[in-house]
């Protein structure tokens, strides 16, 4: 009885790690806490969430960096350059001016100063600490507030206008590294071995960006403040709330846009003389089609991730209808309609959709089986393809007009006879050649330069005749879901899996399989895990 | 009739009453020998890099004869009008010293940073050390509004070879309209304007930045050791912006040749070569005027990414693909389609030289007061070869550099050129480079 009470007390007092599911979770070493620059989308979403829709955000953002397969990992490596900061400063002023414009200030400033041309410290404190907390994603400290207030005071005095003063104060918050970067604070936690753990605000931020690609809302910050997030039940409650929200779709779109390399669509062009159907709108529509297909299968229907490679269900608009040779009725006029490819249609699965097929910024006038094969290996199987070696003689690769080598397969076979090239091209090309029935913008074809296209090959020892059979093999390959699980975790923590987390990743894969490869379940396991908030002790900041 | 001498004009301009002076400014602002402003300050040296992707055909590009009497082969013909102002460097290599040859990356980083990189390829990757433009701007860039200006001509702001070391690039301006706004928009202060009224908001903007610095100590305590460098870089950027604002509060020194250009109209961007060359000239002209107007002293041009995506409209393949896949024409002995782009690249460089040379400053031109390092990441892109990288240096840095020579490095690291440039620009550095690229041997022929 006494022992039981002690146990119950321990359960209540203990933080995470006490429910049945989490009990089987292997301990991890953790990795480094991150210092991540907000992405352009995250910046925009933050402004919209915090100040409301309709604020124009000017200026150029610094380009993202893809590292180890994810922009989210690159975000932990990039800095703010002088010219990039110049843009942040310009942006901060433009945003503050709009937020405090006469028509909007009533809704954002929680108090009325006695006089609009002198400084009201109490009102300025309320305004700046409220927005400071939302922008910094944690309560703003007293000394931080004092520094911001002094800016607002000086500006009020110089301009003779309280709201101008608030504008400069808000600009000050908007150029802060505490806003522009996600600062993950962690401390030693004797409870979980030698590793440290994120504080509750940093955890709230990780969870929120993982699930919504947005900063934590007031409720989540409240749960961090009250200690609710430190309890497994409170943590689960918040994670379940975020997953149930319609905003979860935004988070999933952001995750797949990163995992599938969609930043490559920026500035993507195909030669209009060769591909008259290609427009920049077509590339936007193609992305939207794939994201809708992903969201429908994985979020709306909570389906099996592996079906993404075989599903006939998708969405079409008129632009894509023309590309796929599908009559798109009036119901899709100006919009999208759900559509299922017929059994005889040579399309099923994400690899036969235009977004995948045309996403190759290095070839504007033709398809590249090498790039497509490399993309499948890297994005869906988490495999690394080494770059071509230096000083290679490319004599064997001939031009597209060579009468001897009409198809890409013939040209690449000539290439692969060279042993220096064969090593990598035998890994990439067979997959890509399986997709040669689709040209550089994803239009179906059976011939290239008059010769029949042979799309057959083998993958993991299994033969296929075309890309849809290849997709079935991918569907059955255990590497496919394990790659997704690994990427989801890395996306959440902003770094690659640490050596001390390998066992945990195996556990994550088993749990994912038990959940029938449902994505919301995977995200829930990640977000509520101990591993997700564990930080390697040797990387803890020296406090 | 008042007497037009430099003393009277300056008195009028700098005095309390506003006097309007017609542009361009007269040589009477110069001291007797045309190399310094009346204030005694010499005409400042400028530095630029100019990058093109996918190299050259060595036999058609490098001159045969060494020295001042070098010959211009077909691929270098475009620079003929400026030959006396251009040095050609052959036989300067990217020396890997056991590091991998990262295709379309090692070559450019070797010349620009003096160090072979360990990761990257296809025009992106990491820099082991800061690129030379950063080192130069740390010395000669102080006192101007912009540390440096980066431009790329194919519409992609991620195409830039200016890096502080690490993996972040200094992103490029790609759109003439936005570059114009940044340079000559409302914040521009005409150095030759008769009246000067600093914006009252500048001081408040400075106070914002000064207040942000209060967050440094706490932040340095909160992040792990590996991220402290990144925090420092952020605050370095804040300090540069503070200085930039500080300069805007001071009356700018008159700039001899500054003439504010007309605002460009929106135009198409992209890798089709005609578009890219047009963009090059529009952006280039703005950069040249930014130099003349003292807004910056350092610039970086990237005609295209290193694995060049320049192409002809309607063609299935880009320059980079052509270099690897186009057969060598037996009769010509080279790849005619690829060669087209090599020649166009040199035409674009000649266009940059023309723009710089057409701005008169003192007894010379803006080009004379500059050093422009032009290079590519490969010698022969078809084979990714990085021996004898094609390197040109134009200008004389105001007489501190001997131009018009062809110099052979006999296999020495290409960092020798960068070391020499730094020394000519007055940077006190005796050696430069890392590992096999390290050198303490400047190219004495040009100093």
Instruction: Tell me the greatest interface.
Output: A-B, 74 and 76 residues
Distance between the termini of chain A: 43 Å
Strand content of chain B: 5-15%
Whole-number radius of gyration of chain B?
Answer: 22 Å
Structural class of chain B: alpha/beta
Low-confidence stretches of chain B: 1-29
Beta-strand percent range of chain A: 5-15%
Number of helices of chain A: 24
Mean pLDDT of chain A: 89
In CATH, the homologous superfamily of the largest domain in chain B goes by the name Alkaline Phosphatase, subunit A
Give unreliable regions of chain A as ranges: 1-20
Strand order of the largest sheet of chain A: 3-4-11
Count of helical segments of chain B?
A: 12
Number of separate strands of chain A: 11
In N-to-C order, the SSE pattern of chain B is HEHEHEEHEHHHHHEHHEEEEEH
Provide the fold topology.
The complex is a heterodimer of chains A (543) and B (447).
Chain A: H1 2-13, H2 20-23, E1 35-37, H3 40-51, H4 71-74, H5 82-99, H6 102-108, H7 121-136, H8 142-159, H9 162-174, H10 177-180, E2 181-183, E3 186-188, E4 196-198, H11 200-212, H12 218-226, H13 232-244, H14 248-259, H15 280-300, E5 313-316, H16 318-324, E6 337-340, H17 354-358, H18 369-380, H19 408-416, H20 419-433, E7 447-448, E8 451-452, E9 457-459, E10 462-464, H21 467-476, H22 479-493, H23 502-514, H24 519-528, E11 534-535
Antiparallel strand pairs in A: 1-2, 3-4, 4-11, 5-6, 7-8, 9-10
Helix pairs in contact in A: 5-9, 7-8, 7-9, 8-9, 11-12, 11-14, 11-22, 13-24, 14-15, 18-20, 19-20, 22-23, 22-24
Chain B: H1 6-14, E1 46-51, H2 58-61, E2 86-93, H3 106-113, E3 120-121, E4 124-125, H4 132-140, E5 149-152, H5 176-184, H6 201-212, H7 216-222, H8 225-249, H9 273-292, E6 298-302, H10 319-325, H11 336-357, E7 360-361, E8 364-365, E9 370-375, E10 391-394, E11 406-413, H12 415-424
Parallel strand pairs in B: 1-6, 1-9, 2-11, 5-6
Antiparallel strand pairs in B: 2-10, 3-4, 7-8, 9-10
Helix pairs in contact in B: 5-9, 6-8, 9-11
């Amino acid at each position: 009885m006494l022992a039981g009470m002690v146990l119950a007390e321990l359960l209540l007092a203990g933080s995470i790690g006490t429910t049945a599911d989490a009990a089987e979770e292997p301990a991890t070493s953790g990795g480094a806490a991150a210092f991540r620059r907000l992405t352009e989308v995250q910046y925009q979403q933050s402004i919209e969430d915090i100040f409301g829709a309709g604020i124009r955000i000017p200026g150029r953002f610094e380009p993202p960096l893809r590292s180890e397969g994810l922009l989210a990992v690159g975000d932990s490596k990039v800095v703010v350059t002088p010219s990039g900061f110049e843009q942040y400063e310009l942006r901060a002023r433009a945003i503050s001016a709009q937020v405090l414009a006469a028509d909007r200030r009533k809704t954002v400033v929680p108090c009325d100063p006695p006089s609009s041309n002198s400084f009201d410290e109490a009102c300025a404190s309320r305004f700046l600490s409220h927005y400071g907390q939302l922008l910094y994603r944690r309560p703003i400290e007293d000394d931080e507030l004092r520094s911001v207030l002094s800016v607002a005071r000086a500006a009020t005095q110089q301009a003779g206008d309280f709201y101008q003063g608030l504008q400069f104060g808000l600009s000050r918050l908007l150029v802060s590294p505490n806003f522009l970067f996600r600062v993950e604070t962690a401390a030693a936690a004797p409870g979980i071995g030698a590793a440290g753990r994120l504080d509750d605000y940093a955890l709230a931020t990780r969870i929120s960006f993982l699930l919504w690609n947005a900063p934590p809302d007031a409720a989540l910050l409240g749960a961090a403040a009250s200690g609710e997030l430190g309890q497994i039940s409170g943590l689960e409650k918040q994670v379940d709330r975020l997953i149930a929200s319609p905003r979860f779709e935004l988070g999933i779109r952001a995750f797949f846009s990163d995992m599938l390399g969609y930043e490559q669509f920026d500035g993507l062009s195909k030669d209009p003389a060769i591909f008259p159907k290609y427009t920049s709108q077509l590339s936007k529509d193609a992305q939207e089609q794939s994201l809708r297909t992903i969201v429908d299968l994985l979020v709306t229907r909570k389906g099996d991730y592996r079906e993404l490679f075989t599903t006939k269900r998708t969405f079409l608009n008129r632009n894509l209808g023309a590309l796929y040779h599908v009559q798109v009725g009036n119901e899709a006029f100006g919009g999208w309609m759900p559509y299922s490819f017929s059994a005889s249609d040579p399309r099923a699965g994400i690899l036969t959709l235009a977004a995948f097929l045309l996403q190759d910024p290095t070839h504007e006038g033709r398809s590249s089986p090498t790039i497509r094969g490399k993309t499948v290996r890297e994005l869906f199987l988490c495999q690394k393809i080494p770059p071509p070696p230096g000083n290679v003689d490319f004599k064997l690769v001939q031009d597209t007009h060579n009468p001897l080598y009409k198809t890409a397969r013939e040209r690449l076979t000539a290439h692969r006879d060279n042993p220096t090239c064969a090593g990598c091209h035998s890994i990439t090309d067979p997959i890509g050649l399986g997709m040669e029935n689709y040209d550089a913008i994803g239009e179906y074809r059976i011939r290239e330069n008059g010769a029949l296209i042979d799309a057959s090959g083998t993958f993991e020892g299994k033969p296929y005749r075309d890309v849809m059979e290849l997709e079935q093999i991918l569907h059955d390959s255990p590497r496919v879901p394990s790659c997704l699980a690994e990427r989801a975790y890395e996306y959440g923590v902003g770094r690659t899996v640490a050596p001390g987390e390998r066992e945990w990743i195996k556990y994550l894969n088993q749990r994912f399989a038990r959940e029938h490869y449902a994505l919301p379940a995977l995200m829930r396991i990640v977000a509520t895990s101990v591993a997700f908030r564990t930080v390697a002790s040797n990387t803890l900041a020296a406090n | 009739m008042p007497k037009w001498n430099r003393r009277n004009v300056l008195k009028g301009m700098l005095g309390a009453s506003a006097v309007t002076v017609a542009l361009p400014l007269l040589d009477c602002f110069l001291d007797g020998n045309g190399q310094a402003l009346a204030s005694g300050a010499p005409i400042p040296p400028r530095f630029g890099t100019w990058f093109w992707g996918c190299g050259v055909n060595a036999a058609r590009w490098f001159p045969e004869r060494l020295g001042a009497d070098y010959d211009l082969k077909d691929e270098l013909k475009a620079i003929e009008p400026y030959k006396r102002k251009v040095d050609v460097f052959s036989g300067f290599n990217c020396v890997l010293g056991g590091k991998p040859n990262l295709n379309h990356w090692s070559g450019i980083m070797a010349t620009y940073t003096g160090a072979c990189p360990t990761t990257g390829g296809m025009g992106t990757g990491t820099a082991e050390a800061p690129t030379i433009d950063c080192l130069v701007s740390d010395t000669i860039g102080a006192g101007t509004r912009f540390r440096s200006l980066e431009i790329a001509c194919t519409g992609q702001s991620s195409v830039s070879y200016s890096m502080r070391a690490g993996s972040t690039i200094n992103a490029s301006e790609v759109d003439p309209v936005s570059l114009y706004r940044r340079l000559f928009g409302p914040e521009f202060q005409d150095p030759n304007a008769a009246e000067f009224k600093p914006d009252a908001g500048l001081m408040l903007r400075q106070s914002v930045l000064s207040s942000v610095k209060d967050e440094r100590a706490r932040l340095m305590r909160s992040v792990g050791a590996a991220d402290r460098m990144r925090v420092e870089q952020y605050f370095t950027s804040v300090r540069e912006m503070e200085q930039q604002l500080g300069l805007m509060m001071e009356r700018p020194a008159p700039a001899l040749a500054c003439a504010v250009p007309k605002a460009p109209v929106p135009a198409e961007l992209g890798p089709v070569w005609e578009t890219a060359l047009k963009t090059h000239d529009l952006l280039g002209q703005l950069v040249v005027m930014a130099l003349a107007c003292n807004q910056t002293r350092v610039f970086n041009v990237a005609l295209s990414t290193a694995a060049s995506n320049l192409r002809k409209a309607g063609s299935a393949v880009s320059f980079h693909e052509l270099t690897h896949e186009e057969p060598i024409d037996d009769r010509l002995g080279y790849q005619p389609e690829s060669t087209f782009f090599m020649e166009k690249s040199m035409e674009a460089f000649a266009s940059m030289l023309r723009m710089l040379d057409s701005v008169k400053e003192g007894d010379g031109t803006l080009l004379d007061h500059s050093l422009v390092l032009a290079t590519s990441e490969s010698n022969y892109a078809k084979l990714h070869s990085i021996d004898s990288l094609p390197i040109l240096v134009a200008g004389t840095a105001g007489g501190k550099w001997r131009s018009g020579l062809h110099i052979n490095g006999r296999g020495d690291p290409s960092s020798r050129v960068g070391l020499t440039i730094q020394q000519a620009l007055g940077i006190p550095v005796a050696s430069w480079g890392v590992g096999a690229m390290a050198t303490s041997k400047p190219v004495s022929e040009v100093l």
